[in-house]
Amino acid sequence: MSPYLKEQPRSIEVLNLLAKKRFDLSPLPQAALTNVLYRTRANLNPLGQEILTDSKELLWLKDAPNVLTANSLAEARDCVGLLLTETPGTIGYITGGLEGIHLQTILNGLTTEGISTFIIGIEESCYSKTKGRNPLYSTEEKMSLWTQLAPERSVLFVIPLRPDFVSPDDYYDWIAQYLGIFRNKQIVYLGSKDDPPEIILAHQRRAASPKHCLNISFGNPPVHTSELLDK
User: Fold this and answer.
1) What is the pLDDT of residue 222?
2) Confidence label for 4 from pLDDT (cuts 50, 70 and 90)
3) Could you tell me the pTM of the whole model?
4) H or E element at residue 54
């Protein structure tokens, strides 16, 4: 249990149930995924459209990578445990509201910088209360896209919707600790240089040290991934 989460009986019970929640998703074929990407083109700025073009080409040019998909957080914990045992090097970890293709280019680039594989938490799609819009992709579409575009040996899992009585900071602390990667020096947490200060501190706390955080951004000058969408 995260040290930042109040250990109320209701919290523990609900989180344990969420860990067992299954997402039995059927992978979409490549033709359907191409249509999904094309559908979102109008929502992207020029840099986002460039990444979109690269991703569509990869869908057809790249063999499906060898990735592990977990149907629940409980299964993800087992997959992560196996990955930690079998991987001597650094493992990247990322969660959050970033959707689909926005991270694919960076993740593939980081594999050349000593990060051998990734643990990727894909948020269950829902209406965004903060942004006031429906998600660009469904949960099934996001999982299918990442199954095709993630680097080799990545672990993919769906993050269940957060209970209203648990803060986002507490929830993601709990997920990291549940998966066995909270303050694990083998893990590098990924975030953007222009993330809000509280988000940067949260990543550093989960990684145990700023040295185990990797700040990333797109373009020159840097563009936050959320800004790849036209406002």
Assistant:
1) 74
2) very low
3) 0.86
4) helix 46-61
Q: What is the DSSP string of 123-168?
A: EPP--BTTTTB--SS-HHHHHHHHHHHSPTT-EEEEEPPPPTTS-H
Closest C-alpha among 178, 199, 213 to residue 93: 213
pLDDT at 160 over 90: yes
- Contact indicator for 153, 115 with CB cutoff of 8 Å: no
Q: Give the whole-angstrom CA distance, residue 116 versus residue 110.
A: 8
Domains (ranges, CATH) in the chain? 9-228 (3.40.50.620)
d(CA 214, CA 44): 25
* Per-residue CA distances from 210 to 171, 205, 206 (Å): 21, 8, 10
pLDDT digits (tens, 9 = 90+) for 38-70: 887 877 888 888 877 877 777 776 666 688 999
Total length of the chain: 231
Q: Which residues contact 5 (CB under 8 A, 6 or more apart)?
A: 11, 166, 170, 171, 173, 174
